[in-house]
Every structure is written in C-alpha cells, then in structure tokens.
Design goal:
Elements: E1 2-4, E2 20-23, E3 52-61, E4 69-78, E5 88-96, E6 99-101, H1 111-117, E7 127-135, E8 139-149, E9 155-161, E10 166-174, E11 183-190, E12 203-210, E13 213-216, E14 219-222, E15 224-226, E16 233-242, E17 247-248, E18 251-255
Antiparallel strand pairs: 1-10, 2-3, 3-4, 4-12, 5-11, 5-16, 6-15, 7-8, 7-12, 8-9, 9-10, 10-11, 13-14, 16-17, 16-18
Length: 259
C-alpha cells in the first residue's frame, strides 16, 4: 500500500473462527513480501520502543458468489511500558493463496474524488470494506475502504479515515519467496510522512474488512472469494515495518466458512 499525508473450524453457514498470533522479528528474518510493489521511501531509522503486535482474522460468507467471503484483519499493537507504539512506515496485508480479488467487477473511486468530496465523491458500489482505527492515546475513528485503480493501471484499495481525510493507497501485489507457500497476494501500503518519525500517529488497534457484494447488468459479484473447500484453514499475515527499523509478522488462521 501507499500512504498519501498511502480471519479452528467453520460454523455452519456463518463464520470462520479465528486464531491469533504475535510476532517479534527483524528485516532479515522477514524480508519484504512484495518487492515488486511501489518503491519504499528511504528514511534513517530512529531509536524508539519495541512494538508487540498481535493479529486475529475472521472469514465470513458475503452473500454473493458461493465462494465469496469477507476477510477482517484485527491488529493490536502495544509496548511493554504502555507508551506510544512506534509508528509504522509500511504494512502488507497477506492473504491466503486461495484468495482472489474481483476488483474489475466493481466501480472504482479515484483518490482525487475522495479528497474533494469524501465518501460522497465515490461511486455507488465502490465501497468494498470498513473498519475502525484506535489511535494512541484515546482517539477512535471509522474506516472506509474503496476499490480503486491507479494511473499506472495497478489495482488496489483506498483505506480511508473520512473524519480526518486520511487516505492510504494500497496496491495488490503478488508475494515473493519465501511467502508463496502460504500466501498469494499482498495489499501493499507505504506510509510516508513529512512529520518526524516518532511524532507520527500510531494505532493501538486497527480493524479492517476486505469484502463486498455488487450487482450490475452482468449479475451479482463478490469482491473477495476463496477457492478453498469449506472447513479448510486459511492463512493470513500482516507484515509490518516501523520507523525504528523493527519488522514484525503476526499471523493468523481461520477456516473457510460454508456459503
């Protein structure tokens, strides 16, 4: 993703129960999973707290395709001392290799239109997710996700916080080794900022759902689908790099639910 200032067992017909994972690691342990994505901003790493991150993921049917699902990532971040976690400089949401995105079946929202008019500037049917951001120390804001296509032709989503005007540009990228055994696609997000590294906003919890249903003249479509058989465990991760140079990869599994 780029920032601009860029889901045990299936419950019958309902939901995939989640498992959660925590992570501590370094860049050498977890290299960038989407090296073919947008070039990262070069920044000097700064001293700061070590983050302790956890991830839970849930997968539910979306009511569209028989294979259609909604995937919710629920990330929490803290420090041992309770101080503000180090801000992130890049996130990559990692999706099980059974997951497919049908972005071409949905209307798109251009970032300029969102910037000018907020959610009202985005076409009907372009909203493909939602969530909540808890920003240190005590701010909570709603998140809205819109299907987009960039001038380069790349597809992805805009993860937005309408109350603040924040827009995080995500591109869908194929993952590289050693991630290919578990994951297929990464939603790559860069977070450049003109602020000093430790002065940037830091989230203590971030929930975001990828998935929606849209009907047009060709039929009803699912934004996200899983080609796995019901009950199969799906794998997810959230590769995270922070301004301190710390790299974390919490992971989670959830069962592919029944339609």
């Amino acid at each position: 993703m780029r920032l601009l200032a860029r889901s045990v067992v299936a419950l019958a017909g309902c939901t995939g129960l989640l498992t959660a994972g925590a992570a501590t690691a370094t860049t050498s342990t977890h290299p960038a999973p989407t090296p073919g994505g947008p070039a990262t901003q070069t920044e000097v790493e700064v001293d700061g707290p070590a983050n302790i991150d956890n991830l839970a993921v849930s997968v539910r049917p979306d009511g569209g395709y028989l294979t259609g699902v909604r995937v919710e990532f629920d990330r929490t971040s803290r420090t041992e001392t309770g101080e503000k976690p180090a801000p992130a400089s890049q996130f990559v949401f990692l999706f099980d290799k059974s997951i497919r995105f049908n972005a071409e079946r949905f209307p798109t929202c251009d970032r300029a239109d969102f910037t000018a008019r907020g959610p009202a500037g985005c076409p009907e049917g372009s909203k493909v997710g939602e969530g909540t951001a808890e920003i240190f120390p005590h701010t909570t804001a709603e998140v809205a996700v819109f299907n987009t296509r960039y001038a380069s032709g790349d597809r992805g989503v805009l993860i937005t916080i309408p109350a603040t005007g924040a827009v995080l540009e995500n591109t869908f990228e194929p993952v590289a080794d050693p991630y290919r055994s578990d994951y297929g696609t990464g939603s790559d997000e860069l977070l450049p900022s003109a602020l000093a590294p430790l002065e940037r906003a830091s989230t203590t919890r971030f929930r975001v759902t990828f998935g929606a249903v849209h009907t047009d003249h060709t039929g009803t479509h699912s934004y996200v689908e899983s080609l796995a058989i019901p009950g199969q465990q799906l794998k997810f991760g959230l590769w995270s790099r922070f301004v301190t140079g710390q790299v974390l990869l919490p992971t989670a599994q959830a069962a592919r639910p029944l339609p």
